[in-house]
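Quick one: Arc-like DNA binding domain-containing protein from Kitasatospora phosalacinea, structure tokens please.
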Amino acid sequence: MATERKQILLRLDPAVHDALARWAADELRSTNAQIEFLLRRALAAADRMPDRAADQPRRGRPPKAAPQPPADRQGPAPERPSRE
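--- reply ---
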């Protein structure tokens, strides 16, 4: 079961918000996810990330699986016994 996430009100300079939103879009993240990503990176760099902190949730489209050959092209057809 997912842990409850804290909600906060964050006041930002509009130019800072715009820059964060552009950066988030470049990395295919929401602005909120980008802010959390940057905060986690800063905490880890300062060696202040709490041990009990859950991993950042992975959202979005799942990674593509390796392509599967079509059902009719899975390799050579088995040999048929000859009618001799």
